[in-house]
Write a structure and sequence with these properties.
The structure is a single chain. The protein contains eleven helices and ten strands. The protein has 307 residues and is an alpha/beta fold. It has one domain: Rossmann fold, CATH 3.40.50.150. Strands 1, 2, 3, 4, 5, 6, 7, 8, 9 and 10 form a ten-stranded mixed sheet that branches. The longest helix has 17 residues, at 80-96. The protein starts with a helix and ends in an 8-residue tail after the last strand. The relative contact order is 0.17. The structure holds S-adenosylmethionine (SAM).
Length: 307
Amino acid sequence: MVAMTKALNMEYSFQRYLLAKQSVDDRALNKDVLNALKLNLPQQPIRIIEVGAGIGTMLRRLARWDVIQRAEYVMVDEMAENAAYASEWAKVWAEEAGLSVEGSGKRLRLFDERRDIRIRFERADVFDFIQKNQTRADLLIAHAFLDLLPMPESLPKLLSLTKELAWLTINFDGVTTFEPTIDAALDAQIERLYHKTMDARPRGGDSRSGRHLFGHLRKAGAEVLAAGASDWVVYALNGNYPDDEAYFLRFILRFFEESLAGHPELDAEAFASWLRERRAQIERGELTYIAHQMDFLAGAPSSAWRR
Ligand SMILES: C[S@@+](CC[C@H](N)C(=O)[O-])C[C@H]1O[C@@H](n2cnc3c(N)ncnc32)[C@H](O)[C@@H]1O
């Protein structure tokens, strides 16, 4: 009961959600696609642009996994709170990882005798950034981002940011599952309506962006070098979720609540009771959540990306 009350009163912080998502993404990222990225990465130092970078969890991961050692890393995100958090937080995790830190605000340098990463934080709408960007990257990263954009028209614009490679990860692909079943028909209805809200977002979005990327990339003149599933699979071990994944799950339910509250096709009371029961399942360590997603590594085989 105490835990339930805590969950109901909990503060929803997007930055904490992105922090909590790290361990879920660590498991989910397709390791074959990641290996293809490592094999195809040009000799470092390289220039990387990450769009929709949030608070910079991907940079931390790539440093932690030793994928990048020497790079200029530009992070683009439209939310001022994300850019501010990213800059302060990078100092913390870098020092924990034994890296020295120079600079502050929009520019940081993280380094030791082996590594040298120069970060620039850009608070901007990605399409404004594309307009003013002068130097293309060796690698473009878009992580948990493309399924929020209008497609296919956004893709050639995004690909114009890179001359070599694009690593496009955690693209939602049409399947959400909560276990155990509460009411099969209601579960299915909620999942279906939630996917529809993704397709109807005024700023764009596609609930089947993963599978559609094969065609969109081809049309944009890109070659798929590797592709594979990167499903989120969140479950408790011995009744406990790892790291901060219980918070991650509560936030996912919050997305459902915000997207479907007042939906004309949904019985409001049945939906409220469904949310209550799903939240109780989290507190009891019973809820399993699966979201099907896809990762891609794309390369530029033709002159299509080159100006
Ligand atoms: C689902 S979050 C993913 C963040 C980060 N990639 C991660 O996985 O931790 C999507 C991010 O895209 C940013 N975003 C959404 N639309 C954007 C736009 N048009 N331009 C720049 N950033 C945008 C949001 O502010 C948010 O931080």
